[in-house]
Amino acid sequence: MNNKASSLVRSNLAYLILLVIVLLPFAVFAGNQMNGASIWSKYYAKEISRVINLAEPGDIISLDVHKATKIAKSNGITRLRKEVFTFDNANKEVCVKLSPGRETCYSYFNDVDVINEDIELGVSKNAGNILVFEIKESTR
Amino acid sequence: MRKKAQGGDMMMIITFTFIVVVMGTLLAIGVGMFFGSEYDFREVDANILLYKIEKCIANENIDFSLSEKEFEKEFFEKCELNKNSTEKNFLVFISLGEDDKLKYKTGDEKLCALSERNEDFPLCKTGKIVKNVGEEQLTINLITGSDQKTRKKLT
In terms of domains, do B4 and B62 share one? Predict the structure, then answer.
């Protein structure tokens, strides 16, 4: 009886190993999608570009980015203040990185530069993490 | 006899792998389509661009008698819009009556009509400004649109 059972497991072991090997990458992919990194990075990139488009030189902008930093941290991004939000003043685009190896970028048309960007971590119990940046006239 | 039978049994692994790969791929495509769809921002972009241009034309002294090229230069300087970014991602169409003054993104407003059926086409907003310049009354027609999508970059 025992012999029969062990031979059954042995004959199906190859299938089981193959199943795990093939399905593991798909499960990781689905897991990444489901923690929202893809959709939240698009959301933040677009909403920040909206704010920049409506801003004027001299404005100092503070945005609650607690959700984004939480997702980035859970995906293994450690340098939250430097990596999550980046502004490319030459190409007029904002980039959001919530998972390692890829970032989502979106352009704005307002001819301004974004400077002194920083994330203030744990500002208060209610607000969480705040992205702060300044708007200044574009240096052409 | 047993060994021969086992050999035949192992041939099934090819079929099994094929089925698992097909199922996994379909699953990944389904999840990707559901979570990876674009968050439509074309209308917001088009509205803000229209607002900025309307405000600029109303408040700034832009000379509409200039040639197209000179007008373009003055328009971008006075309206504080980035030329490269606007040219690449947005649709701007400014006309003075029948006279086209500025056309960006092929400036073809016909593309806008397709925006509801296809997200690849620009979603547009239209505006009209009546401005008194001296004794003359100018009617300026505006169309703005956006078909911008987020770009993924590897880091």
Answer: no
End-to-end CA distance of chain B: 57
Instruction: Quote the domain boundaries for residue B77.
Output: 42-146
Digit-by-digit pLDDT tens for chain A (140 residues) are 566 667 777 777 878 888 888 778 777 777 767 778 888 999 999 999 999 999 999 999 999 999 999 999 988 898 988 899 999 999 999 999 998 888 999 999 999 999 999 999 887 667 689 999 999 999 86
Report yes or no: A32 at the B interface, CB cutoff 8 Å.
no
State the SS3 of B110-124: HHHHHCCCCCCCCEE
Q: How many structural domains are present in chain B?
A: 2
> A interface mutation test: which of B9, B35, B55 has the most A CBs within 10 A?
B35
Assign B93 to helix, strand or coil: strand
Q: CA-based Rg of chain B, rounded to a whole angstrom?
A: 27
Do residues B21 and B89 both lie within one domain? no
Task: Please name the residue that has the structure tokens 């798909």.
Answer: A26
Q: Is A61 helix (H, G, I), strand (E, B) or coil?
A: strand
A58, amino acid identity: G
The encoded tokens of residue A43 equal 């959301």
